[in-house]
């Protein structure tokens, strides 16, 4: 069975494990988004979802996707660099849901010129922007979620990539931002643990999405990954989504502060 078939078979798996649970998903831009794959998986396991979209430019595309889900899902505008957006988002989620069980952070951004060339040339502005959007935002959205998760406990998952700990050509400033994000996962896990709120990261192998295509030489990255990975293939987005589901759900109840690699065994390889 090929990797794609394995993932497709897993995709049809559904349950009532998340029935009655409420999840907020950040980072759907289009049907290829990892956030969308996670949303569909959470929905198949019974969760009710709320979504954000970054701006009017992608509102229509997100709206169209969201209406395909069986349960009505509220949609909120949210640019994570705007504190008023985050406040309005959580006011809206509180009004719609009352409580929140799960938070999915699938947000990253760096300027195109900072995803190629020499890292030494990264501008101060580009550095700050990449870190604000891709790492600091985890703190601000977790802070908004905390009071809504206090009653029932909760679980937060953020998406990350191997470029945080290994040098990946052209990933550059985003590697530094992901290192910060992953550290944030651990600090938040410690801080929110007493409230029974778990925080974990899913480190995905390369997946062909809008954000990924912004990385110079991304197609080469996919080829290289396929050749080197233990499973001799790239990951399917459904496999990433299934791991996020596992970590969020009661199945992951003993896990917090971890980064789980869903990379078809790429990271373990030396030579
Ligand atoms: N695609 C991959 O190969 C890969 C691998 C590992 C990790 N990831 C991570 O997965 C996550 C999702 O990315 P994706 O690959 O699905 O791409 P994507 O382009 O579909 O998603 C990125 C999202 O970030 C949002 N975003 C950017 N700036 C924002 C801002 N200021 N405010 C609010 N939202 C903002 C975009 O609107 C978009 O929805 C990212 O954290 C990415 O780094 C991706």
Topology diagram in text:
Elements: H1 3-11, E1 22-26, H2 34-44, E2 48-53, H3 56-66, E3 75-77, H4 83-97, E4 102-105, H5 124-149, E5 154-160, H6 172-192, E6 197-204, H7 210-213, H8 218-228, H9 237-248, E7 259-262
The protein binds nicotinamide-adenine-dinucleotide (NAD).
Give me the number of helical elements: 9
CATH architecture: 3-Layer(aba) Sandwich
Query: What is the count of distinct domains?
Result: 1
> What separation lies between the terminal Cα atoms?
26 Å
- Quaternary status: single chain
Question: Characteristics of this structure?
Answer:
alpha/beta; 271 residues; globular; binds nicotinamide-adenine-dinucleotide; Rossmann fold
